[in-house]
Amino acid sequence: MNQVVKFTIDGIECMAAQGQYIVDAAKENGIYIPTLCNYPGVKPKGSCRICTVKVNGRMMTACTTPVAENMQIENQDNEIIELRKAIIELLFIEGNHFCPACEKSGNCELQALAYRYTMMVPRFPYTFPQRAVDATNPKLIKDQNRCILCKRCIRAIQDEKGRSIFAYHKRSNKVEIGLDPKIGKGLTDELAQKSVDVCPVGALLIRGRGFEQPIGQRKYDKQAIGSDIENM
Amino acid sequence: MGQKITIEPVTRVEGHGKVTIHLDNEGQVTQTRLHIVEFRGFERFVQGRPYWEAPVLVQRLCGICPVSHHLAAAKAMDVIVGAGTGDGLTPTGEKMRRLMHYGQMFQSHALHFFHLASPDLLFGIDADPKSRNVLALALENKDLAVQGVMMRKFGQEIIAATAGKKIHGTGAIPGGINKHLSQMDKEHFLNGKAPMNIDSMIEWSQAALEFFHHYHEHNVGIIDAFVEFPSSYLSLVRKDGALDLYHGVLRAKDQEGNIILHDIDYQNYLKYIDEEVRNWSYMKFPYLKELGNDAGWYTVGPLARMNNADFIDTPLAQHEFEKFKAYNKGKLSHKPMHAHWARLIEVLHAAEKMKELLNDPDLLSGELVVKGTRQHEGVGIIEAPRGTLFHHYKVDHQDQITLCNLIVSTTHNNQPMNEAVNQVARKLMTGKKEITEGMMNAVEVAIRAYDPCLSCATHALGQMPLELTLLQNGQVLHTRKNR
Questions:
Q1: Window A:186-225, CB contacts with B under 8 Å
Q2: Order of strands, edge to edge, in the sheet holding A12-17?
Q3: Third-level CATH fold of A4-76
Q4: What is the pTM of this model?
Q5: Which value does ipTM take for this structure?
Q6: A86-209 has which fold?
Q7: Would an 8 Å CB–CB cutoff place B63 in contact with chain A?
Q8: Which of A100, A103, A214 sits opposite B168 (nearest CB)?
Q9: Prior bond to B195 cis, omega within 30?
Q10: Of B3, B66, B103, B238, which cross-links B23 as Cys (Cβ 3.0–4.6 Å)?
Q11: Boundaries of every domain in chain A
């Protein structure tokens, strides 16, 4: 049995199994720490930084830092909140996120976080990058305009032989996630749907399907992101 | 020295435009133009997007009647997914869309008549501009103002119940609809606490017509003689000639009332209609090819629909339609101010249709979507509140849109609005060196009869201001702006 450790989050005493990542330990204690690149069952990367918390005064990513005895974690610190808001804004300005016509609207984690952190308008100028829609795969559409490069699809989606279907290509600020043309052709319906579900935004779409789920029945139409954890 | 009058912005219309009126040395009006000064470009940036996004994306052209764009695009996408050309949907799919559309027609017409047009009727064309607005209307005639607001609210709630939101919903999808009507919503609309139920809406629609008839009786000069010119008319009609706002065949009549477009399948509209570009407006000038680009212009909208339809399939609206026809001695009405009358007949028709649909069990259950053999080109046409709305798309093998052509109601009405401006300006401004507030509003009243949506017409962005300039020999003499 794992050893139980005691720690605090924003002064609230919490307990969790030693070695658990802060984000999961917080969840078990009814405290929500936002995530984007993190996905259940997939090894955390800590790349999006949205889960940044202060651990004993130092900024750390909650998805890659294990809890330890007597840790003092700050999740609602003003500096942390402002940092997260800035990250969300940067993600919006760096791509072309037009929520009004996006199939994922209402189910989108980025949009839900923007609402949660009351982003009204980004403080940074929009970059309006020229990006394409890759519609070559028979099952999936990859809209590069909306991709936030979280790598969730790369890390979570493999074919039956364990091969990754998605991969980075290009370099620097031109980097994109694409489907392997050969392996991608054999994508099953089940794996295509899983890819769409894994994507936190609307960058992956099932070909020929859109807006079948009515407004009002979408995940974040019903409750704000994180409130399921906070209301446990 | 010649004069140029500029009215900018034109007020109480949707969008942004200006009017220029040129006068020669003798003060004779030599040229008038309604300039649409916005530009948007939806036709271009929808290219490359997956086809199923079109109904949701393109409706962002407008916040006043997005449902019309939503449904016109959805109808085009029905063709793309092989669901037929307007009559292939499941009963639930078509009836839910129709309910959404009648809700839209009801709220948009109510907005126009009560909020935008009625202040001119109630206070007079040359009344103090401070009183020519819906707030003054509320102070002067509280019941009328409240009815206008509540009717609009009712229509918006119908839209929310069918599309998910009052503005910019997602109900219509290629091949059908994404939801049923809930039993709770049905009860609310049919038997909700008065006045927010369908019977009250029908009653108020009749009251609005009574208001209009009373006004007409005492102001024949404004409704009949204020502006009048011959025009051709284009609209959808049902295959049996009935007024149909959601689907039908294209019919056009010439100035004499002869049918010149014989109930054609609108998938072939390009054989009959073309668009001309002029260098002083972002709005194109569509015309019937048969009559040529000079004489082929036509009017769309409520007046065109009344002129083209043979009958209305709801009893109360049919009764009013018969009055309208009798008043015009069975001939076409070429009086743009009669569009207000026609609009109110459609309000009543929409209310009756909503009641019929709300009692239809197909809305509560049944298949939502149908699909067939994939096509690569589709046209969707609907009668929007302001007139016939064309959406035409081509989609490639990778499901991406390669072509989008939109001809919106106000674009069809471009030449008629210019004709109306011209006639009013010649009548009121000839020999005048200064424009009074009343003259300026008279020009706007003529434009307003068409309930134009200039944003949609140029697929452009913005509010609805208009500017009027008085020019003489190229020099600006007088400019009026309403901002």
A1: 205, 207-216
A2: A12-17, A4-9, A72-74, A52-55, A58-61
A3: Ubiquitin-like (UB roll) (3.10.20)
A4: 0.91
A5: 0.93
A6: Alpha-Beta Plaits (3.30.70)
A7: no
A8: A100
A9: yes
A10: B3
A11: 4-76, 86-209
